[in-house]
Write a structure and sequence with these properties.
By secondary structure, this protein is α+β, with helices and mostly antiparallel strands. The chain is built from three helices and seven strands. The radius of gyration is 16 Å and the shape is globular.
């Protein structure tokens, strides 16, 4: 089922998410719904708080480099993730389904190691670099109640706020 993606400046996006304690059918429905929602919105990642659920749950599904197809077999479902190692740095052009139509380069670690649980409560470890490391760090930020635009320089942030206000006015 497709759920509604909440967008900036909805205050819910500032919620610090809590750990999942039950790996039950409710969690599986949430994960399935998040996948359907991410695909229909043309996203490559989604955190549960973006559909209004304050749980430490995220999904990532990057397109394959060769064919640019989002294969479901590459879908990552992560529950209660923790980044245990970060190094290097990279600049990457990011976007977010909660800040639709806005893209900006953000500096992040180039390489990370993350520990998490899959939908069955089994512990996983993943090493990620480049785009995948960006996606992890971006989604983890949502779980902490933050958005990628908070990493912008003061000048770029001001410019963004001005443009965003204008756009919200046009919509209403
Ligand atoms: Co996002």
């Amino acid at each position: 089922m497709i759920r509604e993606v909440i967008t900036y400046p909805n205050k819910l996006l500032r919620t610090k998410s809590k750990d999942v304690v039950k790996f039950d059918s409710e969690l599986h429905t949430l994960l399935d719904d998040m996948y359907d929602t991410m695909i229909v919105e043309n996203g490559v990642g989604l955190a549960a708080i973006q559909v209004g659920i304050p749980l430490n749950v995220l999904i990532i599904n990057l397109p394959s480099e060769e064919e640019d197809i989002q294969e479901k077999e590459n879908l990552i479902e992560a529950i209660n993730p923790v980044i245990t190692h970060k190094d290097g740095s990279q600049l990457f052009l990011e976007g977010c389904l909660s800040v639709p139509g806005f893209n900006e380069e953000i500096k992040r670690a180039q390489h990370i190691i993350v520990e998490y649980f899959n939908r069955n409560g089994e512990k996983q470890t993943m090493e990620a670099e480049d785009f995948l490391a960006v996606a992890w760090q971006h989604e983890m930020e949502h779980l902490a109640g933050h958005l990628f635009i908070e990493n912008l320089s003061v000048i770029k942030r001001k410019k963004f706020e001005k443009e965003w206000k204008k756009r919200l006015k046009q919509k209403s």
